[in-house]
Amino acid sequence: MSSSNDLFKTLSDFKFDDDSSKSAEEKFLSYCTQVIGSVERLIVDFKEKRNRKVPKLDADDKKNLAKAVSGFANSGGGVLIWGIEDKSLKPKPITNVEEFLSNLMQLASQVTDPVVEGIDGDWMKSDRSKGSGYAFLHIPESKLPPHRVILNISNIKNDYFSRSGDSFLVASHTQLEDMFGRRPKPILKLATRLKSSGGSRDKRNVTVILGIENTGRGVAKFPFLAVRIHEPYHISKWGIDAKCHFGLREIVRGVGDNWRKYGGSSEVAILPGTIHEVTAVYVDVNPNLPLSHIYPLKINYQIAADGIQLIESEEIIPGSTIWDVINTN
């Protein structure tokens, strides 16, 4: 399990499995017992509903939900699975599970301060009785920790929880200091913008501007972008403004290195919600050729910034998109 989001998606996908050799419930339970149950449960927790015959949440259910929302959000995120006994991993399906999940989702946004954003839920039906099944909530890692419990129940109100092993523990003083001091992080991705560069009747030019977009809440300092452009296209020597200007300083390449690399100094910062344009790809196409002759633009890229792990991915701009820019200008 690489992340809580991957785990949630895996659990949700069982309901769409059309393999007739086993039911969806059998596969779901097998995964929970043989895969999840055999590893450290840092990003997953099992809960048995106190009264499985009614979808309404009782005091214990609310307490378990509040601790999980606070604990997973303050840590690395996680999935809370309802309808399976924690120690034995025996199935304990819940009657009217859809209504139960709806009650969970409604309360999940009310149990902590600040509210944890991005909580998602799904359910898996049981073959044992109509309408019964299992519910699971994905509680993502929060960008705005710490989250304290504000639910007025039992003895957990105003506590901050964190995930430790397979338990939710009240956060220590040191952990709280770390959470309160955790600055919002930037979230970076490749940004592309296509524009027509003119041309003649037999040759049209398109410039594809490449940049770094920050969709997070933190400032990205010392930004870095590396791109590898596949033939027949190449980096434009005219830069992002047709005047040989680039958004970041190009880093000298080694012999045989086909990556173009760009880096920023401490004076360059990408603010949240903005795009910093860096370089451009030059595309020339004969507009008289059929669409099938326009090659897609394939870009391998790497993005990083101060305190942000290197992101490596690929972007492909279809030939049809390039053709549309040519023929609408």
Word description of this protein:
The protein has 329 residues and is of the alpha+beta class. It folds into 2 domains: 4-181, Schlafen, AAA domain (Methyltransferase, Cobalt-precorrin-4 Transmethylase, Domain 2); 188-327, Immunoglobulin-like (Sandwich). Helices cover 21% and strands 33% of the residues. The chain contains 6 helices and 19 strands. It has helices at residues 4-13, 24-35, 59-74, 97-108, 173-181, 319-327, and strands at 44-47, 78-82, 112-113, 120-125, 133-139, 148-149, 161-164, 167-170, 188-199, 204-214, 220-221, 224-229, 234-235, 249-251, 260-263, 269-270, 274-285, 297-305, 308-317. The protein has a 5-stranded antiparallel beta sheet. Strands 1-2-5-4 form a 4-stranded mixed beta sheet, sandwiched between helices. The longest helix is centred in the first third of the chain and has 16 residues, at 59-74. The protein is elongated. It starts with a helix and ends with a helix. The mean pLDDT is 88.
List the helices and strands and how they pair.
Layout: H1 4-13, H2 24-35, E1 44-47, H3 59-74, E2 78-82, H4 97-108, E3 112-113, E4 120-125, E5 133-139, E6 148-149, E7 161-164, E8 167-170, H5 173-181, E9 188-199, E10 204-214, E11 220-221, E12 224-229, E13 234-235, E14 249-251, E15 260-263, E16 269-270, E17 274-285, E18 297-305, E19 308-317, H6 319-327
Parallel strand pairs: 1-2
Antiparallel strand pairs: 2-5, 3-6, 4-5, 7-8, 9-10, 10-17, 11-16, 12-15, 12-18, 13-17, 14-15, 18-19
